[in-house]
Design brief:
Structural class: mainly alpha
Largest sheet: none
Number of helices: 7
Helix content: over 70%
Number of strands: 0
Radius of gyration: 17 Å
Shape: globular
Order of helices and strands: HHHHHHH
Strand content: under 5%
Length: about 190
Amino acid sequence: MDNFILYFKLGLNHVLDILAYDHVLFIIVLTIIYNFNQWKKVVWLITFFTIGHSITLGLAAFDLLNIPLEIVEFLIPVTICTTGFFNLLKTSSPTDRKQKTLLFFALFFGLIHGLGFSNYFRLLIGKEDDKILPLIEFAIGIEAAQIIIVLGILFLGLLLQTFFKVSKRDWVLVGSSVVIGIAFPMIIERIFW
């Protein structure tokens, strides 16, 4: 049980750490287009993200994947901006087609975000005989942290749209633009070529 708590907390802190704001930014742009009553769709999105994240962590833990960190650190804000720009172009409520596109974004971009933590994770569980169980425990922590963030985003959107009469379109446009404004300089700073 102690190991579960350890890896669960590591997963939780990996997302909720103030220095890991890139993860939070991605979750914001991924979920800002949804309303509170669409929480099931949002849970699917973050679960797909966690699956992608866990796949690359698992591959790294078994020494099957090793991509230079400077490439990964560049790609992470690219995923944030790409999703934000997608929101700017498609501000309407998520259709089934848009949901499928976002599920792909979540899974594929989860693979990239997982690479950002893969070297540390490999070192962390490198001596463990069983690498799968810590990976699952870590993923549960990530999922719990993402649910906390999503609930905050959905609640803030509900509050702004209900009490302050901010239109959903404006909420999505302004929120996505702010996130892009934070992430784009990260791309410039992290150019590796």
